[in-house]
Amino acid sequence: MKVLVINCGSSSLKYQLIDSESEKALAVGLCERIGIDGRLNHTPAGGEKVVMEAPMGNHEAAIKMVLDALTDNNHGVIKSLSEIGAVGHRVVHGGEKFASSVVITEEVIAAIEECNDLAPLHNPANLIGIRACQAIMPGVPMVGVFDTAFHQTMPPKAYLYGLPYEYYEKYKIRRYGFHGTSHSYVAKKTLDLTGLDTNNSKVIVCHLGNGASITAVLNGKSVDTSMGFTPLEGLIMGTRSGSIDPAIIEFIANKEGKSIEEIMNILQKKSGVYGMSGVSSDFRDLEAAADSGNEKAKIAKEVFIYRVARYIGSYAAAMNGVDAISFTAGLGENDMKVRASVLSYLEFLGIKVDTEKNNTRGKEIVITTDDSKVKVCVIPTNEELAIARETVALL
Fold first, then answer.
1. What does the pLDDT look like over 230-263, one tens digit per residue?
2. 139, 148, 261, 320: least CB-packed within 10 angstroms?
3. What's the pLDDT score for residue 210?
4. Was 90 annotated as part of a binding site?
5. Which sites are catalytic (predicted)?
6. What is the DSSP code (8-state) at residue 281?
7. C-beta of residue 261 within 8 angstroms of C-beta of residue 269
8. What is the mean pLDDT of residues 272-298?
């Protein structure tokens, strides 16, 4: 079966067409500036990237352009749309309603809409993508794969906040966690790579990119994760503050005369290593600035590394031990210095890093020595493949 995987943002749309039998991507692409002027970047497997400029007034127009590109005589990879057996949609927030992927029906769409308040920037865009595909591809089965679903196995002691319980009952204010599709995929890959028994395993997955989160996976199930009610909680990230004392919000609002909306914009888009360094949210820029003597960049990097190590240590305590730790996503897969610095805090766990093996980028590998008590892996994430697998499994 050929599965079209759609990841719809407010003004962008990422896609992959995946052959479920070979698990190879036949084509990948990105629609940008939807509703403005429109640009499609389309790359067929083994071919050159094709860039097409064309008006995309809405997501339906973008989807149509994607389908035209996939069937184009020159750079297409299928002869007709009838070859697409299903569409898998990434949906950011499923609340407590969805603990697994589901075939999309009108009832499912209504339930996703009920979660819009929990993810106002993401869920409405995800729904637009679903509706657009339904309009252009009637009769083709569609599946929703939720970022939050993997974390629905967290126990109340991990997901409840220290707030009056009525807020959980009335508004479902709790920790949900995100990056679930990535954490699930990498956790399973970790078990395969290390030979651990799923039902007797303690794994910590570090998804480190511009958005970053860490998850404790006990016997194949998420039992705690660093992101919370929103993706703002947890680690310091590229532009996000991560966890802070909530009283800081009122303090800055009073001192600077700013509204809650303005403060939240600062926490979401102007904080993290970008705000701390004044340089960039990209760790490559941060590294270069630190190496050239920029003290703020150096400190920002150190703070990030320290927080990652602290979360790993706390999750080792939460699971009463750890068998394997995996690094994934842009930074986790590609920055050997960050991995080495994080692991230097964890030598008490009996971790022994093989420096030569750690000198790797974007490659699936165990980077610890044979006598290390905890295995540490680098595993490139593949959320699109995970969505395709979920879609095929359901259908």
1. 889 999 999 999 999 999 999 999 999 999 999 9
2. 139
3. 87
4. yes
5. 147 (proton donor/acceptor)
6. S
7. no
8. 94
Residue with the bigger pLDDT between 258 and 35: it is 258
Dihedral of CA atoms 10, 12, 16, 17 in degrees, nearest 10, equals 90
> Is it true that 2-146 and 197-378 share their CATH fold?
yes
From the list 373, 378, 370, the residue with the least C-alpha distance to 338 is 378
Amino acid of residue 182: S
Q: Is 284 a known ligand-binding residue?
A: yes
What would the DSSP string read from start to end of 140-203? --EEEEETTGGGGG--HHHH--SS-HHHHHHH--S---S-HHHHHHHHHHHHHHHT--GGG-EE
Q: Which CATH superfamily is domain 2-146 in?
A: ATPase, nucleotide binding domain (3.30.420.40)
Q: Where are the domains of the chain?
A: 2-146, 197-378
pLDDT confidence band for 117 (50 / 70 / 90):
confident
Nearest alpha-carbon partner for 214 in 223, 205, 222, 203: 205
Asked whether 325 and 206 are in contact (CB, 8 A), the reply is yes
Domain boundaries 197-378, corresponding CATH code: 3.30.420.40
Give phi and psi for 377, each to the nearest 5. Answer: -120, 155
Q: Is 200 annotated as ligand-binding?
A: no
Q: Give me the catalytic one of 19, 37, 72, 147.
A: 147
Enumerate residues 6+ apart whose C-beta is below 8 A from 8: 59, 89, 90, 125, 126, 128, 129, 130
- 219 annotated ligand-binding residue: no
CB 104 within 8 A of CB 23: no
Annotated binding residue 209: yes
This prediction has a pTM of 0.90
The residue whose two tokens read 């075939």 is: 103
